[in-house]
Structure formats: C-alpha cells, structure tokens
Specification:
Blueprint (H helix, E strand, L loop, with lengths): L6 E2 L4 E4 L5 E3 L14 E7 L12 E7 L8 E6 L11 E2 L7 E7 L10 E7 L5 E4 L5 E2 L5 E4 L2 H7 L22 E6 L5 E6 H5 L11 E9 L6 E8 L9 E7 L7 E5 L29 E6 L3 E8 L2 E8 L5 E4 L11 E2 L5 E5 L8 E8 L4 E9 L15 E2 L5 E6 L6 E6 L1 H5 L2
Parallel strand pairs: 1-26
Antiparallel strand pairs: 2-29, 3-4, 4-5, 5-6, 7-8, 8-9, 9-10, 11-12, 12-13, 13-14, 15-16, 16-17, 17-18, 19-20, 20-21, 21-22, 23-24, 24-25, 25-26, 27-28, 28-29
InterPro entries: WD40/YVTN_repeat-like_dom_sf
C-alpha cells in the first residue's frame, strides 16, 4: 500500500518570553508545562550561541502559560548546563506545591560526582533543597531520578556533557564503580544500579574491548516501572561517526535488563587516514547505523529511529521482545526527536536541517490513520555548528493540544508554542 500524501497544515504559533533575552529548554520528551498546564519552564540567557565555559550562567524559571510574554519568574541560576539539554530542569508535579528540579554546580568530594549536584526549588516559598547527584530524568511519580556522570559525557559526547574544573585525562573505559545511579528524591539516598563494566559483559561484542563506554537518552515509562537507555561505546570518542549503539531496557533497580537492538558494525572511520573534518555537521544523525532518540509509547512500547533486520526506520518495539514494527514507511524517512501525546495516538517529531536549505520540518504523525501533517518549517543557521546548534526538540503539553519547540529561525534562540488542537481535535 502506498503511503498517504503528506498534508501541510499551518498552526498558530507564539514566541515565549521577551527579547533581548534568549530562551530555550533543551531536550525532547520532557514537558515544559507543569501538570496543571499553568506554567512553562524555560532557561534564560543573554547570548544566542557560545562555546560554554565554567562561568557561563543560565537563569532557570518559568512563564505563566496564559501570559507567555509576561513576567519571568526565576527559580535560580546555574553554570551546569549545555545547549542540547539545558540543566535538565523538570517539574516535580507529584510533590506538594510547585516544585522543580535542575542541575547545579557543587564542590563535595564525598559525592560520586563532586562537581555537580541537583536542587529542588519550591516556587512559592523559595525553599531550596540540595541533592547529591545531578539528574538525567525524574520519574513521573516524582519519587526518584536516574543520574549519570556529566563530566564523563563531556569527554564521550560533548554536546550533552558539562564543563568541569578538571576534566578526565585518563578516563576509565568501563569502570565497575560508575554507570547509572538511582536517587531517591525525598531523601537524596542513591545507589548504583547499572555499571559500565556490567554493560560490557551483557551480550558483549568484540568492538567493546578497547572502547570507552557511556549511556544517554535515559527515559522512564509513564508508570515509572521500566527504564530505557542507549548504551554507546567507541574507540574514538572525538568522532561521532565511530559511535556504536545499543537500545536496552531494565527495571529502575537494574534488574530484568533486556537487549532490544544492537547496531554493532565495521567502522572504516577508525583508520588512521580517515578525515573526521570532512564529515558534515549532521551526517552522524543521518547515519544508517544510528540508534537514536528512543521514547516510550505507553508502558510497553518503545519508539526509536534505528536499524532493525537490515533496514533503518522509525521502529516501534515491544519491550522485552525482539519484535519491532516499521512506522510511517515512505513518509517518516529520517531521524528526528519524537515524543508521544499523552493519549499515545499522536507523535510529534522533526527533521535535521536540509543540507541545501537548512530548513527543519516539524510534523505530527497520527498512529491510528498513518497520516503525516507537516506543521512548520524552521531555518537553522549552519554556522552554529555541532555544539551550539539548536534542534527543535518538540515537547507536548499535558492535554495534547500544544507543542513547544526551541528554534533559531528568527536569529534568536527562543521557545515557541504551537497550537495543534485543530488537527488533533477533529480526528
């Protein structure tokens, strides 16, 4: 059956915040909206682009959803952030009051990652509580977070790491005392639930032996009972085309680990005469071997861009099985940052910039009717490069009527609210 023609639909769009400040949120698949829909988290900075140093500061706060150009309410400032993920700010909707968490800089030699921590801020009282680990993602019940070493990520995948006063010089390839931590948000107690050494012994392949290992894209299922993540490894971490990938799920305590996909493959880029500078900014994201941007659809299915049984597509996996269905064949044909609407029917995603026009497409995909709707095209200055780029990173509100993106199409780094209710409401 031939795919349905793509429908172009122009949706109302509104910029969040006021110039001269720039605003962004960061990663996809974390809602900027509070659970009641009244407030929208944002990071506010005074520059559009910069190679970040230790002293570069972002202000974390929120706007009222019914007055997105009004007053910015500050929750605090941090020097622990990057352009891709911000400071991992997240609402803690199941805690009393209006509370949010974000990563901050620290200096505590007793913690696993002495340079970094996280802080819970009560927007009403101003009360602040410091936690010993920086968070990657928090559970929807606001009871726990999963945490990693951002100093390690700065070496292995710089765009999602943090600057530290002293970076690793001889980083352990697969340590037994580091990996994914589970942290209780009420007490700050933490425990290591998955180590890098453990991952090298879990369905090992030969390419792991001399490689540095790390994890990213950790996501918690809506019922907070399962976790997915990408396990990556490389002998040449400075060149993303040398990255190798696996998609893994597990319980939050590290038990019942399951290998969903592995894209181990020969890497000619490891040859001494390979010119990494000849690789385009987004060639890695468009690689046929890339496993990228996994997200939960409900509690039992995982959507990911990646290869399965010899072909690369949007694939929907059934957790704890080897079964994966192709989604959107013929119309979803390149990597993007996908997120599901609260009811699981609609997927919002984007494309990377076109090599010629540098435009990125934002679209909705109806999982029930297999219909794609292109709802926007946004220019991205190619001179921003890899570290300073601004992906759209679309994120849903909690009733599935609006999408929030980051964009630089107006020569500013800003957040935009897009009303999609006309499309999703008439189906």
């Amino acid at each position: 059956m031939s795919p349905k023609p793509i429908i172009t639909h122009h949706c109302p769009i509104q910029k969040l915040g006021q110039s001269p400040y720039h605003h962004f949120f960061g990663y996809y698949n974390k809602s900027t909206w509070s659970r009641d829909g009244r407030y929208i988290l944002a990071n506010r900075v005074d520059m559009m682009t910069k190679d970040l140093g230790l002293e570069d500061c972002a202000e974390v706060g929120f706007y009222a959803a019914d007055n997105p150009n009004g007053e910015f309410t500050s929750l605090g400032r941090t020097t622990t952030w990057n352009w891709q993920m911000g400071c991992q700010s997240q609402w803690l909707d199941q805690m009393p009051g209006r509370k949010a968490i974000f990563n901050v800089r620290d200096n505590n030699p007793n913690n696993p990652y002495p340079d970094f921590a996280s802080e819970i801020v009560d927007a009403d009282s101003g009360e602040r509580r410091r936690l010993p680990l920086p968070v990657y993602v928090t559970a929807q019940n606001s009871q726990y977070a999963l945490c990693v070493d951002y100093r390690r990520l700065f070496i292995t995948h710089e765009t999602i790491g943090y600057q530290a006063p002293e970076q690793y010089t001889q980083m352990s390839l697969a340590p037994e005392d580091d990996g994914i931590y589970y942290m209780d948000l009420a007490t700050g107690e933490y425990r290591l639930v998955c180590t890098y050494h453990q991952l090298t012994n879990f369905h090992p392949v030969a390419s792991m032996d001399k490689a540095a290992h790390w994890v990213s894209h950790i996501e918690i299922a809506p019922d907070f009972k399962r976790v997915l993540f990408l396990h990556r490894w490389s002998e040449r971490v400075e060149d993303e085309t040398c990255f190798l990938h696996r998609l893994i799920s597990m319980n939050p305590d590290g038990s019942e680990m399951y290998l969903l996909e592995c894209s181990d493959h020969p890497i000619p880029q490891l040859q001494d005469d390979f010119d990494a500078n000849a690789v385009g900014t987004f060639d890695y994201e468009k690689s046929e071997w890339q496993i990228s941007h996994p997200t939960w659809q409900g509690n039992e299915h995982i959507m990911v861009w990646g290869p399965h049984q010899g072909s690369i597509h949007y694939h929907l996996y059934k957790d704890k099985t080897q079964h994966a269905d192709v989604v959107g064949e013929g119309v979803l044909d390149e990597n993007g940052h996908m997120t599901y609407s609260p009811d699981g029917r609609w997927m919002v995603s984007d494309t990377y910039p076109d090599d010629t026009t540098h435009e990125r497409i934002l679209f909705l995909y109806d999982m029930k009717t297999d219909q794609r709707y292109d709802i926007g095209s946004f220019y991205a200055d190619p001179n921003l490069g890899k570290i300073n780029r601004c992906d759209l990173h679309p994120r849903w509100n909690h009733d599935g009527t609006q999408v929030c993106i980051d964009s630089v199409h107006e020569n500013q780094r800003q957040m935009y609210l897009i009303d999609v209710s006309e499309i999703v409401g008439r189906q």
